[in-house]
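Researcher: Please predict.
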Amino acid sequence: MFHQGSSAIQIAGQICIATFFLVIGLRNLKLAENHVKKFANLGVPFPRVFLWAGFGFQFAGGVSVGLDVRPDVGAALLIVFTLLANALFHRWWLLDDPVGRRIHMNYFFNNVGNIGGLLTLIALRGPVG
């Protein structure tokens, strides 16, 4: 069953990670058309397909980690999603506005921390049968 052999702290950690990605994903669904326009402006090919693939990675990864069903695969999906989000949306070093630069720097390094947590999850949970 779900979370078999996991400690309460492991379960809580995985649920926190999953909640973060699922809540942000739901919020971003409301902004889908804005994201498509941003992707198009950045020259991303097939921006709508790219966006929905990203949502697929985000939601599948979040559910996988939260329910402890192949959390290694879910964490890998979330890592790819997060790396791409940073590369596309949080390029703080290109911004002239100091407030915008600080905000995107915070998002960028928050995502770096999330990737660290996901890598730790993979290391601790490893490939699960």
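Model: Helices lie at 8-29, 32-41, 47-67, 71-89, 98-125.
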